Amino acid sequence: MTSTLPRTLTRELPQHEGQTVRLQGFLHARRDLGGVQFLVLRDVSGLTQCVGSGLELPLAESSVEVVGRVKAHPKAPGGFEVQVESFRVITPAVEAPPVEIPKMEWNVNPETMLDYRVVTVRGLKERAALKVQAELVAAFREHLNTEGFTEISTPKIVSAGAEGGANLFPIDYFGAPAYLAQSPQLYKQIMVGVFERVYEVAPVYRAEEHATSRHLNEYLSLDVELGFIESEEDVMALQNRLLAAIMERLKERCAPEFALLGATIPDVPAHIPRIPLMEARQLVTEKYGHAVGGKDLDPEAERLLSQHYAETEGSDFVFVTKYPRAARPFYAHPELNADGTPNAELTRGYDLLFRGIEITSGGQRIHDHAMLLESIAAYKLRPESLEGYTEVFKYGMPPHGGFAIGAERLTAKLLGIANVRYARAFPRDRHRLTP
Ligand code: AMO
């Protein structure tokens, strides 16, 4: 009674050699060779080659069911083939897909790939990138849970920006002005007063007008904040442990995805190298002759600094520390002078570079109420617009800090994907609101 067989997944075939199994999935590819038909069924766990004859095959991407015997076959994907005993169309495709999924090549005609994303996202490489990101997020949660963190959920409709700058999306909130949240920054700090150690996994919104390979208008922010710290060193040490745990889990669970994309999982050094921003700018200029513009590192400087640490210390990661006040938001804690007074120029803010690109900003935050109000004034922000936030600093907020990882940037760099848009299922960019 084949219909009562439980569903078998492609990855389980080796356990069923010689037995009859029932597979369900999508018709990935089909070929007719003089009366013998080959069909490739794609399920969540991989591809199964099935062989039959006299079958009426539907259009590609139809969902189908195959009942058949499992036979070892060294040339088939996964080393097993299924000899079809019965074949059934579950839901037929009513049109041929606009792109042939098995022939799709990564980043070939990227706009078409994104226009037809509802189908192209089924591609093996496309879904591998999203699978790796899902595991990465799971590892993020898992590790932070073991360190006593609590997951929070903060508003995405807000009354003021958190990061400064003009990249806010305005919305109409029942006639009142509001914005899509740029970052959970202010709320995650407030929640340190509740749980001491918190994290959030949620999309954030940035109205960046420019189209680059590293900017999205909606991206997944992996946010962390922890209280009772001594300095930003505690925050960097946590991020170091977290990254090691994430890479461990990816090694355990995503080897096939990395192999498919020809990418390698980095080793995370026990102590990721650190360099103050000012020294980093100098190093890049002296060693590579690159004059760094602005107050931060420009993309070329990030690439060169990463190259330096890969070559000299074998590290794919480097923390750039002690950011100048001019390159940090109002909430960044000042660096302290030897006598304990606040330094007017430098902060305890840092960035983390990974394989040539910034994947994180973080640091210690101001927790002293008076110092925070002074900083808001110095940045010429309207204190009334931040009252809901500054209020909490009247009530014993401990020294705290945290960071945010851009999930798409980390995923893209891990997998050698050239544009962050391919590290998101349905990217939003300047010209793309659908699908
Ligand atoms: P920041 O604005 O630097 O810091 O953002 C943190 C990280 O988010 C990623 N990122 C982006 N990814 C894709 N598209 C974008 N437009 C984009 N903008 C930023 C980057 C970046 O390093 N509140 C602070 C974090 C903190 O201090 O905790 C913040 O949001 O990987």
Automatic annotation (TrEMBL):
Region annotated Aspartate, chain positions: 185-188
Signal peptide boundaries: none
CDD domains given in the database record: Asp_Lys_Asn_RS_N, AsxRS_core
Record domain Aminoacyl-transfer RNA synthetases class-II family profile: where: 130-435
Cited InterPro entries: Aa-tRNA-synt_II (IPR004364), aa-tRNA-synth_II (IPR006195), aa-tRNA-synth_II/BPL/LPL (IPR045864), Asp-tRNA_synthase_2 (IPR004523), Asp/Asn-tRNA-synth_IIb (IPR002312), NA-bd_OB-fold (IPR012340), NA-bd_OB_tRNA (IPR004365)
EC number: 6.1.1.23
Keyword annotations from UniProtKB, A to Z: Aminoacyl-tRNA synthetase, ATP-binding, Cytoplasm, Ligase, Nucleotide-binding, Protein biosynthesis
Keyword Lipid metabolism annotated: no
Reactions performed catalytically: tRNA(Asx) + L-aspartate + ATP = L-aspartyl-tRNA(Asx) + AMP + diphosphate
Entry binding sites for L-aspartate: E163, R206, S361, R365
Subcellular location: Cytoplasm
Gene Ontology MF, one: aspartate-tRNA(Asn) ligase activity
Its job: Aspartyl-tRNA synthetase with relaxed tRNA specificity since it is able to aspartylate not only its cognate tRNA(Asp) but also tRNA(Asn). Reaction proceeds in two steps: L-aspartate is first activated by ATP to form Asp-AMP and then transferred to the acceptor end of tRNA(Asp/Asn).
Family that this chain belongs to: Belongs to the class-II aminoacyl-tRNA synthetase family. Type 2 subfamily.
Binding partners and assembly: Homodimer.
Descriptive protein name: Aspartate--tRNA(Asp/Asn) ligase
Taxonomic source organism: Deinococcus taklimakanensis
Upper classification of the organism: Bacteria, Thermotogati, Deinococcota, Deinococci, Deinococcales
Gene name for this UniProt entry: aspS
